Amino acid sequence: MRYTHHGIVIAQSSGMKTLLLFAFLLCGVLAQAQPIATSNSKQIAVRNAESLIGDQRLGYQRLLGNVQFEHQGTLMYCDSAHLRSQGNTLEAYGHVHIQQGDSVHIYGDLLKYDGNSRIANMRRNVRLTDRDMVLTTDSAAYDMNSKIARYVSGAKIVSRENTLNSQIGTYSTETKTLTFKKNVVLNNPRYVMNCDTLRYQPDTKVAYFLGPTTIKSKGSTDFIYCENGFYDTKRDVCQFRQNAYIITESQELRGDSLWYDRRNGLGKAIGHVKLTDTTQNIVITGGLATHNERTNTSVVTKEALFIQIFDKDSLFLHADTLKTITVDPPKDDTISEKERKVYAYRGVRFFKTDLQGRCDSLSWTSADSTMRLFGDPVLWSGGNQLTAERVYIITVKGEVKRLELENLAFIASRDDSARFNQIRGKHMTGYFQDNELVRIDVRGNGQTLYYARDQGLLVGVNRADCSRLRIEVKDSQVTGISFYEKPEASLFPPLDLPPRQALLKDFKWREKEQPMSVADLFVK
Asked: Own/partner pairs for 4-11, CB < 8 Å, 24+ apart?
C-alpha cells in the first residue's frame, strides 16, 4: 500500500476510504503548521512540510520543502527529510538548522537525529553559533539532554578577537564551557597559544590549559612555556605551572609556578626560581620571587643566590633577601643603557675563586660596577683578611681592580700558625692586578707589623707607625713598605717582641667565617 500527497495519485485498495480521510486530515494539519505530537512528547513532531511521501514497507515518511520538526522544545529545519516514526529517528538534508533556545543555532548539510537518545549528528559544513561565538567543522554530535556539542575531526572557533583551532572539542551550550584537545592553536591580536588541552569557563571567564603549552607574543620575542596553568581574562591574571618559564628579549624566568597580574604589573615566581639576565650576565635563584613592573623592582627570598658571570670566573652571593631595581636612563641623557641596582639584606656571604666575603648588607650598581658592604664586613683575598666599617669593591669587566676600606681598616695575613702580619689604618686602598692584591695605600694612623724572613727563616719582626704608607704585595706576601711623613719603626728579634705588642689594636682573626665554596654560603 502506497500513498502520496499534493497531486500524486493514491493506489486503490480496500482501505481507500481510510487513507483518504487520513490524507485530508494531514493536509489540514500541515497547512496550519501544527505539530502532530505535543512539544513534550518523546516522539518527533512534524510542524511543517510542503509535501509528504510515505512508504510503510520501507518504514519511513519522506517530507519535502520547508520542513520543520519539533522535539521536546528543540526546533529543526531542513529542505527534505526521512522520518521513521517507529524508531523515532530522522534524517534531514539540505540547509539543516537546529535551534535550541534563543541563542544556540546549529547548521549543516546532513543531520541524523535519534529522538530516543536525543543525539543529533550533523555532517558537512557544520556551523554552531551562540551569540558572538561561531564554531565551524566538518562533523559534530550534539546531545540535547546534556546540551553538549562534540567534534573529533577538527574545528575552528571564532569569538570576537580570538580564533581557535583544535582537533577535538566539546561545547556546553548550557554552561557555555568549551574544552579543546589535540593540536590546539589560539590566535589573539597580542599572542599565539599552542597547547594540548584548553578549557574555558565563561561564568568565571577563566581559561585553563593542560599539557605542554606555548604562548608567543606578536611583535616581540616574548615566549611562555608551561604544562599546566590558567588565564583569568576578566581580571587579566594568569598562572603557569609545571616546568614553567618565560623568555623575553633580555631575560629568562623559570619556576615551579609563575603568576602574573597584567593589569597591576605584578608578577610572582614560586619554587626553584631562576632569573637569567643575558645582557648583564646575571643569574638569580631562590624559592620565591616577586616583580613590580611599575617600579621595575624584583625581590627574591628563600635561599636567594645572586650569580654574576664573568669570562674566567663567577661571583656567587647569598643573602636572606635579594632586591634588584632597574632604572631607565633620563630622556635627555646620552646614556641609553638601563642602570641595574642590586641590594642584599641580612646574612650576606659571597664566594669567588680569588675573593670571598661576608657582611650584614650589601649594594651593587651597574653604573659604577661598585659593590658596597655594610655591617661588620670582612673580605678574604688570597691569604689576606680585610676588614673595615665600610668596604667598597670596584670591578672592571668582571675583575676586581680596587678595594676601598673606610674607618678602622685592617689587613691581616697568617705568617705561621702563631704569627700574623698586620696592617692597620683609618683608610686603605688596595690595588689588584689579574685579581691579585699587589699594593696597599694607607692614609691616617697607619700601623704595620710584619715578620721578616730570609729564605724561609724568620729573622725579625718589623713594627712601624706612620700616618701614610704604601705596602707592596706579591703572592700574598709583603715585599716592601714605603713610609711617608715621619715614620717610627722598630725591628725586633723574633723572640724579643712582647706578646701584647704582637697584635695590633682591633686585631681579630676570622678564618672560620670564610666561605671556601658555594655550598658554604648557605651554612649558618
From this structure: 4/51, 4/53, 5/51, 5/52, 5/53, 6/50, 6/51, 8/53
